[in-house]
Amino acid sequence: MSSYLLIVKSELPGAVAGFLSGDGSGSWYLDGRLLLLITSVCIVFPLALLPKIGFLGYTSSLSFFFMVYFALVIMIKKWSIPCPLPLSSAIETLQVSNSTVDCKAKLFHLSKESAYAIPTMAFSFLCHTSVLPIYCELQSPSKSRMQNVAVTGIGLSFIIYFMSALFGYLTFYDKVDSELLRGYSRYLPHDTVIMTVKLAILFSVLLTVPLIHFPARKAVFMVFFSHLPVSWICHILVTLVLNAIIVLFAMYVPDIKNVFGVVGKKIS
Q: Where does the sequence pass through the membrane (predicted)?
């Protein structure tokens, strides 16, 4: 959960700054820790208080549409950036040329940065902790119904991420950045659509945290409070403590690569 919040802390100030004119350095609304605290209190904590994971279906749908928007923009912007890439950051002409070797796709490309892909891919399995709570809240739960839900969810996610990765690579080729949207910001500065995509992705990440929180809280209840009757006071206190821990952890961890590496290895 802290990994998602760490993404919000590191990326939200830049997304907000993109909509502002002038230098706002030092302003409170560009402080990543403060923005993380505000979004956690106003969005994450209220959603985490919901008693059933089924209530989060609406926010999950919203998060999914944010990702669809992201994929569509990546696909469309393929034709907004020329190839080969210009030497300057800003694009002055939009003449697309595929005459150089820089504009030829490679089926396989390995580098030292490829090592980060393995723990990052393993990190994606973190959401699988929500499978059992979702199964328990299905109408007439069965193995076949749960399998249909899983196949549909994984299939849609695969299509979105595959198309985003494919068109992102076909836009930048060997110059693709480890953070895809950063490349678009470099060559399309102050592009309103790209800035809205950044915010959409951050909200999508933020809305994922309550989904991961639900099984974590369930596990705490089963281990430490299984002998006690369920009460709203205990429910709120456990939710508050868990959220406080993950927010504090996200606020003071400096590098997201360390988190992805540790969490990815643990999950794999």
A: 28-48, 55-76, 116-136, 148-172, 192-212, 232-253
Note the pLDDT tens digit of each residue in 114-167: 776 776 666 666 667 777 777 777 878 888 888 888 888 888 888 988 898 889
| pTM recorded for the entire structure | 0.78
Burial class from Cβ neighbours inside 10 Å (0-12, 13-18, 19+) for residue 233 reads: exposed
* C-alpha span between 131 and 151 (Å, rounded): 12
Do the beta carbons of residue 184 and residue 192 sit within 8 Å? no
Residue in 266, 246, 260 with CA at minimum distance from that of residue 1: 246
Can you spell out the DSSP letters for 37-83? HHHIIIIIHHHHT-S-GGGGHHHHHHHHHHHHHHHHHHHHGGGTS-S
Q: Minimal CA–CA distance to 31: which of 3, 7, 45, 12?
A: 12
